Amino acid sequence: MSHKKQKAGTLSIAIDNFIKTTHNYWSGLFHCYEIEDFPRTNNDLEHAFGMLRHHQRRCTGRKVAPSSLVIRGSVKLACA
């Protein structure tokens, strides 16, 4: 983006802001590629939690997942 910002015209200010912000957060921005089996997108992460809720409902026979799942969901997901 920094190479082509001259062609952006009035959007060059937004490109500068994007580059500055990206540079500030660069060290932790793409950590999903450093951890094996870590969801790459938010959709993948939501799918994992959805599957956990589905299995919780199925095992307990409830129509909704228990409230403890919200509080300790990440731990239960890791254990599952």
From TrEMBL:
<protein>
    <recommendedName>
        <fullName>Transposase</fullName>
    </recommendedName>
</protein>
